[in-house]
Each structure stands twice: as structure tokens, then as C-alpha cells.
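User: Let's play a game. I give you a shape written as C-alpha cells, and you guess the letters that built it. Ready? Here's round one.
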């Protein structure tokens, strides 16, 4: 694994947001949800596609705080524009466990 320096790490803008909506994404190649996430006043609401259908249902995602990278370029996935990358731990069976703060914090707080 290649090492990075502090300046490289500072370029990655990870922020906490709250999921407002979670919808099925039938046009995705792999099972996924379309998420609307509120990252607070400065960053705003962003959309993301997340392959988390094995461990999460849509109803339990609403109101859940997650950590995401918000400064990647927009990526088109099928007919959907993903504006951030929700972070998770990938298990042995490719099941993704979301990274979440263990206490509620203000939307938009930066990880660092």
C-alpha cells in the first residue's frame, strides 16, 4: 500500500450527513439504493447511489447519519447522478456496513 502525506489526506473532504430519502434503484447494475443526504448549510443536500441493500432496508436508513466523501466529481450511474461517496466497511461477503458517528452530530461536520 502506498503511503500518503498529510496534504494528500487534507484533500479528501469527508463530512457527516443525515439520510433524508432512500429509494430503490432498479436501473443499477448491482442492487442499490438512491439516497438523498443532508450535509448541512455549507455543503447542502447531495445524492448518492449505495450498494447497501443486503444489510439495510430503506425505512431504517431514513434519519441515519453517515460519513461520505463530498468532493469527488459527480458520477453518472445508469440514469442517476451520484454527487458523493457514502463510506462503509466491505465484509468478506461484499456486504457493506455503513460508517456512522456513534453519537449524533451536526450535519456537515468534517471528518479529520
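Assistant: Ready! My guess for every position:
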Amino acid at each position: 500500500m502506498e503511503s500518503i502525506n498529510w496534504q494528500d489526506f487534507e484533500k479528501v473532504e469527508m463530512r457527516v450527513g443525515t439520510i433524508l430519502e432512500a429509494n430503490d434503484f432498479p436501473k443499477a447494475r448491482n442492487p442499490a439504493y438512491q439516497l438523498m443526504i443532508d450535509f448541512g448549510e455549507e455543503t447542502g443536500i447531495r445524492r448518492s447511489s449505495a450498494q447497501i441493500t443486503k444489510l439495510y432496508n430503506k425505512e431504517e436508513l431514513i434519519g441515519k447519519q453517515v460519513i461520505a466523501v463530498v468532493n469527488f466529481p459527480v458520477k453518472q450511474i445508469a440514469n442517476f447522478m451520484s454527487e458523493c461517496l457514502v463510506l462503509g466497511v466491505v465484509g468478506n461477503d461484499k456486504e457493506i456496513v455503513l460508517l456512522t458517528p456513534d453519537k449524533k452530530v451536526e450535519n456537515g461536520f468534517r471528518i479529520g
